[in-house]
Each structure stands twice: as structure tokens, then as C-alpha cells.
Amino acid sequence: NRHLISAGDLAKDDALLILDTAEELARVSERSIKKLPTLRGRTVVNLFFEDSTRTRISFEAAAKRLSADVINFSAKGSSVSKGESLKDTALTLEAMGADAVVIRHSASGAPHRLANWVHGSVVNAGDGTHEHPTQALLDAFSMRRRLGGLEGRKVTIVGDVLHSRVARSNVLLLHTLGAEVTLVAPPTLVPVSVGTWPCEVSYDLDAVLPKSDVVMMLRVQKERMNAAYFPSEREYSRRYGLDRDRFARMPDDAIVMHPGPMNRGMEIAAEVADSARSTIVEQVANGVTIRMAVLYLLLGGETT
Ligand code: CP
Fold first, then answer.
1. Cβ–Cβ under 8 Å, residues 56 and 48
2. Was 55 annotated as part of a binding site?
3. Among candidates 54, 17, 73, 36, which has minimal Cα distance to 284?
4. Which domain holds residue 52?
5. Which of 276, 262, 284 is nearest to 139 (CA)?
6. Is there a binding annotation on residue 261?
7. Contact call for residues 246 and 206 (beta carbons, < 8 A)
């Protein structure tokens, strides 16, 4: 495949190739080799219509470590404010010679549409409430590094599933890789389509926690929230937050994840986020490695 738009498009062999390539690249970095010549002469455009810290910076770092030229575009301050469409923006950037376009957009499906308009590879860096495939890949990579394999591992994903592109991409990828996923959320924050997802659903975090190898907390996305879905922060935190007491009831070797940005004190207590069993900082570092692997495979190496 020329593009990476959905985690669901990855067969098991594709996903393992990306994870194994990232493992090789991590070994190269550990030998203090900071830059590889692989994508010299290629251009990666980061096309961000929505805010981002981790994803935008890590795609830039990944492309630069592979010696690609990088063009960073953010909708704020561009001609998008004058009404220029996604198509015209994309064609303008392609005319500047983009070999790959990394896109984040508030509209679910924007990367899919973009792939019909440009010749280069399209990488979905988060589209609306739909998917965030490189986040799922970096999460799987982080789990594999901490736990060994993913086959049969029990992964619990907790919180605002309704608005979470991270949850959907993780469910699809983790299922492909043989893990068993349970989503835990208030009934108002579970999407109607969840019955078609390859996972279990529970409303009782305390019942699921003791059986989990991984507990992934999701950000409560207040900016996408309707008050009817979310009556009270305190009630949410009491029933679905990972606080000190709940953390103590997890198995001793279970890990805690969060894609960031976090609402400390709401979905996750600060001391849990900062504990030795939290992978949150590792996830950010692994994000650069995974994005290097994705760009390398799409632009420079074997095709996925
Ligand atoms: N996890 C994640 O996508 O973070 P950003 O929104 O900061 O990129």
C-alpha cells in the first residue's frame, strides 16, 4: 500500500514489518547514529489543520533523521483562513514537490479524500474521531517493548471512546496482532458502531482492571463534548479515573499508557502518570521511531 490511512488496512504481516523495522531503527539510534541518508532528496509535507504537539513534532523529527526535506504547514496563518479548500491547499503543496503528505484534520475521512488528489503517499496523522494509525503503531511498539509479545495480552482502553480516533485505531491494530481489547466507558461515551468493533465493552472499570496487562487511559475531549454526554468532571473521575487506589489494584506487572495530551487529575492521577509503570514518556520517544519506520517503508524501502 502507498498510503497509511487506517490501522484496519494493515494485515498482520504489514503491522509486524513496521514494528520490526522500528526495532531495527531503534537499535541504530542506540548506537548514537542520529541521522540516516535513506530519504535524501525526498520531501515530506506535514499538513496540520488541527493542533498537535507530539504527532507534528515527531513526524518532523522522523523525516529529518532520515535526511528528508520537511515542509511544515499549519492551517493557522495560511490561506485556509481566506477560504482555500483542502484540495487546493494539497495541490499547491504537491506542486512544491511533496513525496509524502502527513495530514491531521478535524474531518473524519479527510486523508482518504486527499489520497485521490495527490500523487505522493498520504499518512493519516489523526482525522476527526475516525483514526490515528501511527498512534496505534507506536502504542503497540511500546507494549511489545515492555511486555514481549502482544498475542493473548489483555488491553483495557478506558474513557472517552466516542471521540477517540486513538481507541478505534488501537482496537483494529491490537486485534490484528492477537491482543484482546476491552473498552471501558460511560454508556454515553461509547459509539453506536462499537458492536462491529473486534473488542469487548464494559462499564465497570473495577471489574476489568485486575485482569489487565495494559491499561490505556484516553483523554476526555472536552472540545468535542456535548454537555449531555458528560454531566460532571468529579463523577467521571470517581467512576472512570485511574487514581492511586485503582492503580494499586492492577496486576504488579501491568503497565499504564496514555496517548497524551493528559488531563492530569481527571482521567489519570499525576502520581500514576509519573510512575515507573507508566509508558507515557516512552510512547513519545517511540513515536519518532515508528514514524521513521512508516516513512522509510512508504518512501524508501519495501512497500507495506
Ligand atoms: N497523541 C497525540 O496525537 O498527541 P498530539 O495531539 O499532541 O499530536
1. yes
2. yes
3. 54
4. 7-132+284-300
5. 284
6. yes
7. yes
122 and 148 both lie in a single domain: no
Contact 4, 294 (CB under 8 A): yes
Interface ipTM = 0.98
Whether residue 109 is contained in a domain is answered as yes
Report how far residue 27's alpha carbon sits from residue 30's, in angstroms, rounded to the nearest whole number: 5
- What tens-digit pLDDT sequence spans the chain (304 residues)? 799 999 999 999 999 999 999 999 999 988 888 899 999 999 999 999 999 999 999 999 999 999 999 999 888 888 887 888 999 988 888 888 899 999 999 999 999 999 999 999 999 999 999 999 999 999 999 999 999 999 999 999 999 999 999 999 999 999 999 999 999 999 999 999 999 999 999 999 999 999 999 999 999 988 777 766 666 888 889 999 999 999 999 999 999 999 999 999 999 999 999 999 999 999 999 999 999 999 999 998 543 3
Helix (H) or strand (E) holding 157: strand 154-158
Dist CA 281 CA 77 (whole Å): 30
Ligand 1, atom nearest to 51 Cα: 6
Longest alpha-carbon distance in the chain: 56
Of 48, 51, 53, 127, the residue with max ligand 1 atoms within 8 A of its CB, to mutate for a pocket test, comes to 53
Specify the ligand 1 atom closest to the Cα of 55.
8
CATH number at residue 181: 3.40.50.1370
Which residue in 158, 154, 159 sits closest to 143, CA to CA? Answer: 154
* Beta-bridge partner residues of 255: 214
